[in-house]
Structure formats: C-alpha cells, structure tokens
Write a structure and sequence with these properties.
Elements: E1 5-9, H1 13-25, E2 29-33, H2 36-46, E3 50-54, H3 62-71, E4 80-84, H4 89-97, E5 102-105, H5 110-128, E6 134-137, E7 140-143, E8 148-151, E9 154-155, H6 160-171, E10 177-178, H7 179-186, H8 195-209, E11 216-219, E12 223-226, H9 232-235
Helix pairs in contact: 1-5, 2-3, 6-8
Length: 237
C-alpha cells in the first residue's frame, strides 16, 4: 500500500514540526504550509490524502481556506481536520458546517491527533474497499469506489463524513441509527463528539441533496434513517 500524504497548515512552525515528527514516525508523507495561499497551492498540486488545517492563519484564515478547498472540484473531497486554539463551541460547529471531518483544540495530544488521522484514512479506505460499489435509491446514486455521489445526473460534492453517513443510511434503508451509532460507524469509536456534530453533518448533507434531502428522515428522540420504501413520486421527481 502506498504511503498516505498529509498536508499540515499552521503559521506556528513549532506546531508544524511537532505534527510532522509524529506523522512521519507513523509512516505518513508530510507536506508543510505556513499560510493559506501556500496551503491552497499545495493542495491543488499534490492532492494530499488529508489536510490538518489551523483556523487562525495570516492573510487568508483557515475558514476561507476551507471554503475554497470545498468549492473546487480538485480538492472538494479531501478530508480536513481543523486545528485551533479557539474554545468556543460555535467555532467547532462552524468548522463542521464548512465541511471539516474533525475538529481538534490546542493544546492537543499528538497521539490523539494521529489516532484521528488514522481513523479518517481508514474510513475512506473502508469505503473504497466496500463490496457493493454502487448504491441507488430514490434518485440518489453513490459510487463507493470513486467516492462520488449524484442526484439524477447532477454530481454532488460531499465531504468524507457526509459521504459515509449517506452510505451508512442508504445501505440499511429503513433502519434507524442514533447519533452515537452514526459516529461510531463513520468516524471511529475513539472520537468524542456532541450530538450537534451529527446534526450539523446531516443538515449539510440534506442541503447538498436538495429536494432529495427529505429522504433522510429524522426520527424524533432517536436518530435518522433513509426513507424506505421510497415514494414513487419522490423517486421519479
């Protein structure tokens, strides 16, 4: 298996060196950027397997970098872990709404960071190795080999977490998953998140799916499910 490449973006060189040391020890190839422009350039040229992105960057901050990465077809599906010294829960929600897969606060444990990186890389690999490559329901098609999603013939760019949630729900149409079961399935059991984290990803997923987002139903007090059987008028709309 080829080595995975991680782009680390932070204006604090000591932090970058610390992450570089630990990732390299774990067998990853590390790219470094100390500002937003350099991060965007490297992401487009090298297409890393994952990006660790600090929010508080000079000139172009991490929020804008994330927006630009998600807006480009070339980089839209690269997983992002946001790294920041901010402690406000609203910042965490914002990061997830922008399409980040995970959010880690400084100061952080290098071991925790590496475990999060491995969980995301493993999750993506699991999706690529899934036995059923094409899943279709209600006008939505996902290709787990290419990590592509479509509504009818319209391509829908999803983050890795959004894609994995959609895959989970579509594979078990009609089955209800609570928030913690969703987290365990798509992000790994070693990740501690709030209920709102899953809600943010579901809201973003529904928005991207447009009218077909209604196929992801909220089961009040329990969790979420993919509607099954799909109503004929919705499937053909």
């Amino acid at each position: 298996m080829s080595q995975k490449t991680i782009l680390v973006v932070d204006d604090e060189r000591d932090i970058v060196d610390l992450i570089d040391y630990n990732l390299s020890k774990g067998g990853y190839v590390v790219l470094k950027a100390y500002d937003g422009e350099a991060a965007l350039s490297l992401a487009r040229k090298r297409r890393p397997d994952l990006i660790i992105l600090d929010l508080m960057l000079p000139e172009i901050d991490g929020v804008d970098v994330c927006k630009r990465l998600r807006a480009s077809e070339e980089t839209a599906n690269i997983p992002i872990i946001m790294l920041t010294a901010r402690t406000d829960e609203a910042d965490e929600v914002l990061g997830l709404e922008l399409g980040a897969e995970d959010y880690i606060k400084k100061p952080f444990s290098p071991r925790v960071l590496i475990s999060r990186v491995r969980a995301i890389i493993r999750r993506k690999a699991d999706g690529e190795d899934s036995k059923t490559k094409i899943i279709e329901a209600g006008g939505i098609t996902i290709d787990t080999e290419r990590y592509e999603a479509k509504v009818k013939d319209r391509a829908v760019p999803l983050t890795v977490t959004e894609f994995r949630i959609l895959e989970l729900l579509m594979r078990a149409r009609g089955r209800v998953y609570d928030r913690y079961r969703i987290v365990d399935s798509v992000r790994g059991e070693d990740v501690i998140v709030l209920d709102r984290t899953v809600d943010v990803h579901i809201a973003a997923l529904r928005k991207k799916l447009g009218l077909h987002g209604s196929l992801i139903e909220t089961v009040r007090g329990v969790g979420y499910k993919f509607k099954y059987p799909v109503e004929q008028d919705e499937a053909s709309s």
